[in-house]
Amino acid sequence: MTGHSLMSRRRLLRTVAYGGLTVLSAPVWADTTVRLPLPGGPDERPITTAFPQKGPMILQRTRPPLLETPWDVFDKGVFTPNSQFYVRWHWAVIPTQVDVPSFRLTVRGHVDQPLTLSLNDLLHDFPVFEIAAVNQCSGNSRGFFEPRVPGGQWANGAMGNALWMGVRLKDVLDRAGVKAGAVQVRLRGLDEPAVDDGPHFMKSLGIDHARDGEVMIAYAMNGEQIPLVNGFPLRLVVPGWYATYWVKMLSDIEVLDQPDTNYWTKTAYTIPDTPHANMTPGQTGVKTVPISRMVPRSFFTNLASGATVAAGQPTLARGIAFGGDCGVARVDVSIDQGRNWQPAQLGTDEGKYSFRRWEAHIQPPARGNLEITVRCTNSNGEAQPSAPNWNPSGFMRNLVESINVVAI
Amino acid sequence: MSSLSENKAMCRAVVAAAVFACAMLALPAAPAAAPFELKSVNVDLPDSDQTFPSGPGSDAANNNCLACHSADMVLNQPTLSRAAWTAEVNKMIDAYKAPVAKEDVAAIIGYLSQLRSAK
After folding, report:
1. Does residue A225 belong to the interface with chain B, where contact is any CB pair within 8 Å?
2. What φ, ψ does residue A111 adopt, rounded to 5°?
């Protein structure tokens, strides 16, 4: 754990009771805070180093954990370190102890041969598969929605990119033998509802998607085992799709011969079935569909609003981009509100689902305020829109990103 | 982070070093890829003892909301309308089966609706 110096105001462990439930209280408060530029606030969040296997993180919620990646991390490279990869859980009952020898992954349902696999089986009995892929919360950037919407009030740091290593879901399903008539595969982890009758978190993928050879079960992330709060020991990886499908602590795979009707697949995580999942606040009768594929995004990482740059001199702007469900075709930068665009240079291609570095030299024409905008166009030809979308869940934000710098 | 051109130069240097290393290994029957092993994990997750700022309905909020989640989630929410808070409380009860006492529902909604001024 790093950053102990941030934790000078530790509180003593003590036990408190809330409504009959006794919980152990541990210190999570730090003297360091960060201000997120969320319109209307509240904008102040603690930086916490209290979570196991994690470095400094923006504390959005302690229990169950919502931890956002501090923005400076994204300027350091296209792979997000495990220690600062964002964290998001739905239910607070999360196992804190996972025993490698006794852990089992079950495969059952509409299959010829149900399986009970050990981690050793997964590590040694299947072909190894690796892929670089962005994991992004459906509600990343929700805090920028206007009008504001309830939910995790993320800035842009509920995303990360990692090199995932493990086995293809297809190979595991093939070993079990999927029966004719299978329609979906339902994934479930070890986390449990905090209340009786609460809906256990589960997500389903279409059978063809589950067997596409890219959806995988990861046991490693950036060459190391996955931190517990990021889903140790196994995490589903669904390249190009929002993170809600990337089930953590994956322990059960159920092949279904009927469409899944569970709350998390059918009701939660739905978006307006409209371009950019956009609707008008208060609009009624909007058809909704489950969220699925990601859309292109790009960000500045070396400059932020308020930065000063030299007038009349070339200034390096750089950042990261990703195509969503396909690669980055191009990144362009504008210093005149999108009337003219100049192409950015792209960095190493780590795979179509990865973050990709971009950089461009912009030249502020004169002293004064300057808005700089960046836009990604993906390899399907889809570009980031120039206007924000809105929906009541705060999902799928991907408009072009702009910063306001001062040329002096 | 250095510039892209510097990165490329570094990549070339790394590749050259890797090629050199491979050449030095003289290629006997290559063993299987370096085994990746997992180690059991046993950790503690921190919790929060934060309660809602005192005000009308704060007891109801403390008694009903904090069993499932810490207070910071609520205190980080933007200013929301009474209708929006009503929808949130109802979602907790209907979708997530939060065992909220019926007589407390109105007090919780009332408390949350004036949350910003309560702080």
Report:
1. yes
2. -130, 160
